[in-house]
Design brief:
Layout lengths: L1 E2 L5 E6 L17 E6 L4 E4 L8 E7 L2 E6 L7 E6 L4 E4 L8 E6 L3 E6 L2 E6 L5 E4 L13 E4 L4 E6 L5 E6 L2 E6 L6 E2 L8 E6 L5 E6 L6 E6 L7 E2 L12 E2 L5 E5 L4 E6 L5 E6 L8 E3 L5 E7 L5 E7 L5 E3 L6 E7 L5 E7 L5 E2 L6 E2 L4 E7 L34 H15 L10 E3 L10 E4 L2 E7 L11 E7 L4 E9 L1 E5 L5 E6 L2 E6 L17 E4 L1 H19 L4
Antiparallel strand pairs: 1-2, 2-3, 3-4, 5-6, 6-7, 7-8, 9-10, 10-11, 11-12, 13-43, 14-15, 15-16, 16-17, 18-19, 19-20, 20-21, 22-23, 23-24, 24-25, 26-27, 27-28, 28-29, 30-31, 31-34, 32-33, 34-35, 36-37, 37-38, 38-39, 40-41, 41-42
Length: 554
């Protein structure tokens, strides 16, 4: 609103839409400018001739200046003569809108395209101002500081001795107990993210935008070997990296819905599949590093599990799409493929309205990979143990070399890595765990570690979770931790896990009755050089890439 010089008139707008992010609004809430006469107790709508928004009324004499896009394109300053009752355009900007105008005794000041302008009154001569604010610019100075408040991606070393953590674009390894915190990258103007530790403990793979696009890099986990760029052909936003158990290959997906794998010593990536319906976020390697299991969406919104053979380059659907099957994970001994499936339909009425709720839909399932293997939930029977044969019974006969034994060992190894695709979907069993909400699982030796959603998710889709395990031998499940944010990694032997809860990052034993805070890591030692100017350029470039890659229309 704005008063006339004699305070007898008040020009006002209601409502205001000027802080909205859209342009050229023509709806019923487009604001008009009214002039209220205090003496006559009467209001007059002076912009009713235009269906779009009119804003920022300002008096100068008998003229009301205001901001409007009534030329159909760009918002400019306009003037309304109270006596002649006519409108005329004052400024002629075509690239950017006139914003935030304010009137003084003899001029209007406004912003356009990042510049300040003055409009002299009554001549209406326009002048662009050059503003210089002397400053020591303390916010631009490099500073060595803790970056623990900017932790993102992380993973656990195979022996649970250290964790690798992404913090403010650098990668650090933090000891579980003893030793120093190491900054592996030290690159203020580059962002490294999504680190993963190789199963053999030697390498850490991650994404870096040092080349201008996110590419895959591998560096020595001890910080002694320089980083090496693996891919050169990535041109969109990539997601989580997953090492193969032999520490020779990596798999990942990207924003386009494609799934890839690459030899860590090479550079040419191989496309596994493309999901035209959604992004691929769930993929895992078989223990022999010959297969990749992944979940792919159907047009109906369900997930179907697929197995991809590295040897043949072919992918096979192993579930039928009649249920939502997701989060595949191999048994490390190569016997089963575990997964979560929404096959439980137990509707409940709401407490205040007659709506059906399906809150506990998920159960854990195991798929037997070879037709010669018994089900993990086959009937149990107590039997007496038969005395074992002596060692001599297993030795080669006199004069027989060890080649036969070697062949037998190789045959057993080959048998252990075989997957019988025929009839695979028929060899699915339900594990004896009550239905619930299970966001993810990971198979370890003798156990299945899984997350359980504790309650309803918030408006952003986040919910507190518990981490539990199912014991294959005892056929029972136990709770390890409650009320945490998530699990970021599991040790190679499955005895320890890396969890997060608020600003706590900890390593906990896979055992019953642990609590948040157990095994808390000291992350305060994550110190890095923060160079604001270098960071600003990286942030600008990344924002541009995100707009390019995530815009809804290709």
């Amino acid at each position: 609103a704005g008063f006339s010089a004699d305070a007898n008139l008040l020009a006002f707008v209601s409502p205001t839409y000027d802080r909205r992010t859209w342009k050229r609004y023509r709806g019923g809430n487009a604001p008009n400018i009214w002039v209220y006469d205090f003496k006559a107790n009467k209001s007059d709508n002076i912009t009713k001739d235009w269906e779009g928004p009119d804003e920022w009324p300002m008096f100068h004499g008998r003229t009301v200046y205001y901001c409007s896009d009534r030329n159909g394109k760009t918002a400019n300053l306009w003037a309304y003569d109270l006596d002649k009752k006519t409108h005329r355009q004052v400024t002629q900007f075509t690239d950017y809108d006139v914003k935030w105008p304010s009137v003084g005794s003899d001029a209007i000041v406004f912003e356009n395209g990042g510049w300040l302008y003055t409009l002299d009154l009554p001549s209406e001569k326009q002048t662009r101002l050059s503003v210089l604010v002397p400053d020591d610019k303390p916010a631009t100075r490099r500073e060595f500081r803790s970056v623990a408040d900017w932790m993102r991606g992380m993973d656990l070393s195979p022996g649970a001795k250290r964790a690798v953590i992404e913090a403010r674009g650098d990668l650090f390894t933090v000891p579980a107990e003893k030793g120093d915190v190491r900054n592996l990258t030290n690159t203020p103007g580059t962002r490294e993210r999504a680190p993963v530790w190789s199963p053999d403990g030697k390498w850490i793979a991650y994404w870096s935008d040092a080349s201008g696009e996110y590419q895959l890099y591998v560096t020595g986990a001890d910080g002694k070997l320089p980083a090496r760029q693996v891919t050169k052909d990535q041109n969109t936003y990539p997601y989580a990296l997953v090492w193969s158990p032999d520490s020779k290959k990596l798999a990942w997906s990207d924003k386009t819905g494609r799934l890839y794998w690459v030899d860590a010593a090479g550079s040419k990536s191989t496309q596994i599949d493309h999901d035209p319906n959604a992004e691929l976020h769930e993929y895992t390697w078989s223990p022999d590093s010959r297969w990749i299991a992944y979940a792919k969406h159907t047009g109906a919104g369900f997930n179907v599990l697929h197995l991809y053979s590295i040897a043949t380059g072919k992918s096979t659907a192993v579930t039928d799409g009649m249920s939502d099957d997701f989060s595949p994970s191999f048994d490390p001994e190569g016997r089963y493929l575990y997964f979560v499936s929404r096959r439980t339909f137990s509707p409940e009425f709401g407490g205040f309205e007659l709506n059906m709720h399906f809150s506990a839909t998920d159960k854990l399932y195991a798929m037997t990979l070879r037709d010669s293997l018994a089900s993990p939930v086959s009937p149990e029977s107590d039997e007496e143990a038969v005395a074992a044969k002596g060692d001599d019974d297993e030795k080669p006969a006199k004069g027989e070399n060890s080649s036969k034994a070697d062949k037998n060992m190789k045959a057993a190894k080959d048998e252990g890595s075989r997957i019988d695709l025929a009839g695979l979907s028929q060899r699915v069993v339900e594990l004896p765990v009550a239905a619930g909400r299970y966001p993810g699982i990971v198979g370890v030796k003798g156990k299945l570690i899984f997350l359980a959603q504790d309650g309803p998710a918030d408006e952003d889709g986040n919910a507190a979770v518990s981490v539990r395990y199912y014991d294959l031998e005892k056929r029972e499940d136990k709770t390890i931790l409650e009320g945490i944010d998530g699990v970021a990694g599991v040790s190679k032997d499955g005895d320890k896990l890396l969890y997060t809860q608020g600003d706590i990052v900890g390593i906990a034993d896979v055992a019953e009755g642990k609590k948040a805070g157990d095994g808390k890591l000291d992350v305060d030692g994550m110190m890095a050089w923060v160079d604001p100017r270098a960071e600003w350029l990286q942030m600008y470039n990344e924002a541009w890439r995100l707009e390019r890659d995530f815009y809804y229309d290709p």
